[in-house]
Design brief:
178 residues, alpha/beta, 5-stranded mixed β-sheet, 5 strands, globular
């Protein structure tokens, strides 16, 4: 029988808890309103450091007739470099046509070059391939990645317990030569 070390057991339990939390979090996000979801993705990108950690650098633009842009982040203080966001709470996979439509919307935004498309579902393989075409940089974040980023940046989660695991500091026990 393959015995696990205590460190391996803790890591396994931690990973299991993380996956369970990510699944619960994603289900909770899917049950929220589209407006809540749009605010969530802008908040997440700001917490990740886009917009130089300035809350006012991000804004939600989502409304009917928004042309497919749900949020904008000013990457620098002068607003010279913008990141456009599309946020979709979907159950079905996002296909290539929706990514192409987003690329088209970016082209109409003063030929924007950066976009982030976030969904609660997943993207088709063809959708990922589409992001490699042209000179626009479009990043796709699926539901699993979204939940993991929310956990990493403490969006919608609260730390419950923190365990500090220690080891012997070998340097401490090194006796200097006299």
């Amino acid at each position: 029988m393959d015995e696990k070390t205590p460190d391996e057991q803790i890591q396994y339990a931690y990973d299991l808890l993380h996956v369970h939390l990510a699944n619960q979090l994603l289900e909770r996000v899917k049950s929220c309103s589209p407006a809540f979801f749009e605010n969530l993705v802008v908040e997440l990108l700001l917490k990740m450091g886009y917009g130089n950690f300035r809350k006012e650098a991000g804004k939600v633009t989502g409304r009917s007739g928004d042309g497919g842009i749900d949020g904008i982040i000013e990457e620098d203080k002068l607003g010279l470099d913008l990141i456009y966001i599309q946020a979709k709470r979907y159950g079905a996979p996002v296909n290539i046509d929706e990514v192409r439509a987003f690329a088209g919307v970016l082209a109409m935004q003063n030929n924007a070059r950066k976009g982030v498309f976030i969904t609660t579902s997943r993207f088709s393989d063809k959708a990922y391939e589409e992001t490699q075409r042209g000179d626009r940089r479009i990043v796709l974040i699926d539901g699993k990645q979204l939940a993991n980023l929310m956990i990493e940046y403490n969006i919608g989660v609260t730390p419950r317990k923190i365990y500090e695991i220690k080891r012997i500091d070998s340097d401490y026990f090194e006796v200097p030569e006299e």
